[in-house]
From TrEMBL:
Highest taxon in the source lineage: Eukaryota
Signal peptide as annotated in the record: none
Protein name: CS domain-containing protein
Residue span, CS domain: 44-138
GO molecular function: S100 protein binding; tubulin binding; ubiquitin protein ligase binding
GO cellular component, one term: nucleus
């Protein structure tokens, strides 16, 4: 019996050592990349936004960006492709923030998509490739309304249509939900 217990414990220790060696190797690789200046920028996730389906286009409203006009327009970028968009803001109140929807509900025309910086928000216009109603913004998103979800209001990412007019949901009330 003792031999079985010791053999079992030895296998656990060996597995632990292999796991630690793998972690050490990964840590070493990360340190090398940092030393070479190849590290990737880390962004905080934007969770407060709303969206609405407006026929031939979808509008996304990124709210709660007090002082966004003070950020250089060179540091605000939104890239579009047929199935995604990625809004990045560098240096907003000392942080780099991002709203990335990697898989949109349907295809858009990237050349006709745009974004506009307002006094305390950013609006993104996604031009639909084909007309048709969008039931959500993208994978993991709720219905038209709040992309970020609302704490205490059911599942993350669930919208609140009708609460803010025209199926907009409740701008600025996003929470720690799926957001994007």
């Amino acid at each position: 019996y003792t031999k079985k217990v010791l053999s079992f414990e030895l296998k656990k220790v060996e597995a632990y050592i292999v796991d630690q060696q793998a972690k050490d190797e990964e840590h070493r690789r990360l340190q090398e990349h940092r030393a070479e200046g190849e590290h990737e920028k880390i962004y905080s996730k934007i969770t407060k936004y709303a969206w609405s389906d407006e026929g031939s286009k979808v509008k996304v409203y990124v709210t709660d960006l007090e002082g966004i006009k003070d950020v250089s327009t060179d540091n605000i970028n939104c890239t579009f492709d047929k199935t995604s968009f990625d809004l990045t803001i560098q240096g907003y109140k000392g942080k780099d923030i991002r709203l990335c929807i990697p898989v949109l509900n349907k295809e858009v025309n990237p050349e006709k998509c745009k974004f506009q910086i307002k006094s305390s928000s950013i609006s993104i216009t996604l031009k639909k490739e084909k007309d048709g109603k969008w039931t959500n913004l993208g994978e993991g998103e709720g219905p038209a309304g709040m992309g970020g979800g609302m704490p205490g209001m059911g599942m993350p990412g669930m919208g609140m249509p009708g609460m803010g007019g025209a199926g907009m949901g409740m701008p600025g009330m996003g929470g720690a939900g799926m957001g994007g």
